[in-house]
Design a protein that fits this description.
15 strands; alpha/beta; 4-stranded parallel sheet; binds pyridoxal-5'-phosphate; single chain; 7-stranded mixed sheet; 453 residues
């Protein structure tokens, strides 16, 4: 019985899919943080190369992947689509569970799909350095790898709590030649201001973004790079879903439910966007798309759909998204990559249009799901991915109860080999749940920027 569906390298994907061409209603534009007018390409030029700025606003359906990027993708792509037959058996479910596994990339997650592309376009524009932030360290290590591929210097501001919890990620970054420091840091005004108020601040993605953006705008040789949220990042990730569509065809299946975890939304969007095209076009109107986030950082399930900054200090453009407030510092759950106050505007827009639903899960239940998955399928998953696994298991158990043989597709965003301290805490009973931090979120939402809509 077949468990792996592989594409040959000759069948590799050669263009990314841009959902902006097919949205039933256009995406609300990003706004300049000062004038609050729609962003112009010049506004973004200090941060990003022109090719990426063009991709950010393009409505072309297909965007060709340059050969230089495809050459690097071929180091690990196409990735395998797996049928989780042993998990199905363990759950005694009639559901058919598939997972697209991105953990075989050099840094171990989906992140290099965009890191390599971003490094390439920066190199093409003559940029020598890139500054970025990282949560769990997956993005920082992916961009360090991307920088190494194209000879670009990379500086990573890593959220302090993860920097201390996950030293091996820092060492991976250094192995690829990057510099990684904990955020908040003394290197920027944004970092110094926070440290003056709270010397033990655990940091947040929003704060680390402020530091990286501040560094990029203050140096001519340095650009900024974001590992999620923005349209061009989601675009690069569609290589995942485009491969999966071909592989599902090989398996003679089409998903009833697609599940993924969302931090800024990029791995999940990468998988489901090529499928949601079929839902928008009415070919598969019942396709269910379920995004999973932490209960302690419930951006889509509890946030407001408003314009907000992408970072703590208010340096980035304003994006219309679900937000918990840019000043919200989420509790230190181990899924560092899901600790973000905002969400990709594309994901939020699709949620508003009723094309996608969201669920929030507590940390302990996600680790239980991750351990069940590891014992059935072998793969030890990233704590972020465990959120999606939890919902896949819930849906498969529902199928056991109703007898429906649904096809469930999981976006498996990465392995957890560098997260063993989190597993140890779980296995030894030292891991706890964090309550939904209602008061902190209320406080952060009380000072959203004022924007006329
Ligand atoms: C393994 C893994 N999955 C998921 C995420 C969440 O990010 P995104 O929603 O952009 O995929 C991260 C972020 O660091 C990650 O490392």
């Amino acid at each position: 019985m077949r468990t792996i569906y592989m594409l040959g390298q000759k069948e590799s994907i050669t263009s990314w899919y841009n959902v902006l061409a097919d949205l039933p209603e256009p995406l609300p534009p990003g706004l300049h943080p000062g004038t609050k007018k729609p962003l112009s390409p010049e506004d973004l030029a200090p941060l990003f190369p022109l090719d990426l700025i063009k991709q950010e606003v393009s409505t072309e359906r297909w965007i060709e992947i340059p050969e230089e990027i495809q050459e690097i993708y071929r180091l690990w792509r196409p990735t395998a689509l797996h049928r989780a037959r042993r998990l199905e058996r363990a759950l005694d479910t009639p559901a058919r569970i598939f997972y697209k596994y991105e953990g075989t990339s050099p840094p171990g997650s989906h992140k290099p799909n965009t890191a390599v592309a971003q490094a390439y376009y920066n190199k093409k524009e003559g940029i020598k350095r890139i500054a970025t932030e990282t949560g769990a360290g997956q993005w920082g290590s992916a961009l360090s790898f991307g920088g190494a591929c194209f000879g670009i210097e990379v500086k990573v501001y890593m959220v302090a709590i993860s920097y201390h919890q996950k030293p091996y990620r820092r060492i991976m970054m250094e192995t690829w030649g990057a510099k990684c420091i904990p955020s908040p840091s003394q290197d920027t005004k944004a970092g110094r201001d926070i440290l003056a108020q709270d010397p033990d601040c655990p940091g947040s993605l929003g704060l680390a973004i402020s530091e990286a953006v501040e560094e990029a705008v203050s140096r001519d040789d340095t650009h900024y790079s974001l590992g999620s949220v923005l349209n061009h990042v989601l675009l690069h990730q569609t290589v995942i879903g485009l491969e999966t569509k071909k592989q599902m065809e090989m398996a003679g299946a089409y998903p009833d439910i697609i599940v993924g975890c969302i931090g800024g939304g990029s791995n999940f969007a990468g998988l489901f966007l090529p499928f949601i095209k079929d839902k928008i076009e009415g070919k598969y109107p019942d396709l269910q798309v379920i995004a999973v986030e932490p209960a302690s950082c419930p951006t889509v399930t509890k946030g407001l759909y408003k314009y907000d900054f992408g970072d703590e200090a208010g340096l980035t453009p304003l994006l219309k998204m679900y937000t918990l407030g840019h000043g919200f510092i989420p509790p230190p759950v181990h899924a560092g990559g899901l600790r973000y106050h905002g969400m990709a505007p594309i994901i939020c827009h699709l949620h508003k249009l009723g094309l996608l639903e969201a669920r929030a899960e507590h940390q302990l239940s996600t680790f239980k799901a991750g351990v069940d998955f590891a014992r059935a399928e072998g793969i030890i998953s990233a704590p972020e991915t465990n959120h999606a696994i939890k919902v896949v298991i819930d849906e498969a158990v529902k199928c056991r109860e109703t007898g429906e043989p649904k096809t469930i597709l999981l976006a498996h965003s990465g392995h957890g080999h560098v997260d063993m301290a989190a597993y140890e805490a779980y296995l030894s009973g030292r891991l706890s749940d964090y309550e939904y931090p209602e008061q902190k979120i209320e406080a952060a939402l009380s000072y959203l920027p004022e924007v006329e809509e």
